[in-house]
Amino acid sequence: MIQITAFLILIVLSMISLANTLFQAARCTIAYLGRKQYSKLLIRLKNAAVFFTAMLILNAVLISFSQLTASTPPIVDESGGAPKNSIAELKRLELNGRKQWISIRGWDKSAPVLLFLAGGPGGTQMAAVRHELAELEKHFVVVNWDQPGSGKSYYAEKIKNINLQTYIQDGYALTEYLKERFSQEKIYLIGESWGSALGIFLIDKYPESYHAFIGTGQMIDFAETERMDYSKALEIARTKGDTDLIDRLEANGMPPYYGKDVTWKSAVYLNYLSADMAGNPEIHNPGYNTFRDIGSSEYGLIDKVNFFRGIINTYNHVYQQLYEIDMRKDYTRLGVPVYFFLGRHDVNAPTVLAEDYAKNLEAPDKRIVWFEHSGHSPWINEPEKFVMEVLSCFIENKEKK
């Protein structure tokens, strides 16, 4: 937050100095045209221009410093020291020619590897997972990946070129890197929201690379989900008499949406549903801690800006490519154990679709784990239970084999 504060102060000073520079330049011009003495005005103009230039240089230095010093904090045990075999890395990789960032954290680098797939498309949860699921780092090497078009990897690929295959190809390349680096034949996967769909795409195509998969806030049928979300938001708005929201929804019409306004049109009902979940007393710890996350050390100042650009721009471009996908038709047989961690009060990804999918899914093992005090994000709403259930599905089941 110190960097953000300093950046904002420098921005304000830059704007003030620019205004002053333009003002002094205007005074010099008027004096010159009026053939008046303006030597003192030139000195003031020069001083204003020098100050403005200094502000720009300081801003550039601060931005560069923030990017170069971004890091993930060291693992610290109860005594305040770092466990002997721990790992805490923020690393840039090249995956299929695209430069992308991951964080790697764990108390023991010989532990099983767990790759967390963030929601979105375009979302980064590198810091959020560290804050909410630190307990997992005691049992796994936890890897968070900023996917192309998100956070630290926003510039990995031009947004217009990103498609579903981009994520699958790079997800697999990352998996192979992790297997080789940590000398493991397979890794574990957790996918959240959009990441829950990406996880299924990966285990479907490369089952030999994964022990098991957990999907939370599980996405099943993208187009149907949007229609159900829209209808649910309209239902809630009518119950509450929220005429402004009703008017906006009706003006946009029933999704799915296409074009340049997908993000903004979808946000009308998605934000409304998120607010409804945040106000639900049955949901514990209901909201994202966005200010905490964006202020985290993993993100430099450019990354902090791209934190939001990914959610807006990448989501807009990619999400409309997903409307034809329905897991119930396209991914009915999977070669690894699959577990769905569902919030009982999730009104963002309708759980009825996940239940329907689970009934007909063929997999070596499958299970729905319900979180009675959760909405769309059980890993945030009930983190202790989430960790316990992850260990139950991943570690205990492996030991039984």
List keywords for this structure.
2 domains, eight-stranded mixed beta sheet, alpha/beta, globular, Rossmann fold, 401 residues
Task: Describe this structure as you would to a colleague.
By secondary structure, the chain is an alpha/beta fold. It folds into two domains: 2-68; 87-222 and 293-400, Alpha/Beta hydrolase fold, catalytic domain (Rossmann fold), CATH 3.40.50.1820. It has helices at residues 2-33, 39-68, 126-132, 164-181, 194-205, 222-240, 243-252, 262-278, 290-294, 301-319, 327-330, 351-360, 378-381, 383-400; strands at 87-95, 98-106, 113-117, 141-146, 187-192, 210-216, 338-343, 366-371. An eight-stranded mixed beta sheet has the order 1-2-4-3-5-6-7-8, with helices on both faces. Helix 1 (2-33) runs antiparallel to helix 2, helix 6 (222-240) packs antiparallel against helix 7 (243-252) and helix 6 (222-240) packs across helix 8 (262-278). It is globular and about 90 Å long.
